[in-house]
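Private note to self, pasted from the team thread so I don't lose it. Backbone tokens:
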């Protein structure tokens, strides 16, 4: 079987779309005709979800400022989690571009102040429990007790 030609044929007919879109019948699809619409039993396979996460994690890690890599594992994880949540390119050369006070507090090791700052933001009201968990992690330097061991 000539997989390259089959891929070319399907790409010609289905297209190759790097974002979710609705097909001609209104079902959510992605890539080369991959059905993701739950109404029709569509989904992303677990191996694709893991690969996508690993790709996203590598991309986020590339944006972390140099000083972040000197943090302990837990506080580094907080910054990574926040980066996932805050969207693409949350950092500039100094840290979170919209959070200069928070960046200064973390860089100076003032973790309790950084945690309080996190809890006082609009972001915290939007993400609720996530913000509290991350602020607690920032303050304590410890993984949460309810976190599965991956």
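Design output:
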């Amino acid at each position: 079987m000539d997989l390259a030609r089959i891929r070319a044929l399907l790409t010609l007919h289905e297209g190759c779309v790097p974002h979710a879109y609705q097909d001609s019948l209104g079902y959510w699809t992605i890539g080369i005709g991959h059905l993701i619409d739950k109404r029709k039993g569509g989904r992303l396979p677990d191996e694709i979800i893991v690969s996508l996460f690993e790709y996203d994690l590598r991309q986020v890690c590339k944006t972390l400022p140099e000083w972040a890599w000197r943090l302990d594992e837990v506080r580094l994880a907080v910054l990574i989690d926040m980066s996932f949540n805050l969207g693409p390119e949350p950092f500039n050369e100094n840290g979170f571009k919209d959070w200069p006070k928070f960046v200064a507090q973390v860089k100076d090791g003032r973790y309790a102040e950084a945690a309080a700052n996190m809890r006082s933001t609009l972001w915290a009201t939007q993400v609720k429990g996530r913000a509290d968990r991350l602020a607690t992690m920032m303050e304590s330097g410890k993984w949460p007790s309810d976190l599965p061991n991956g």
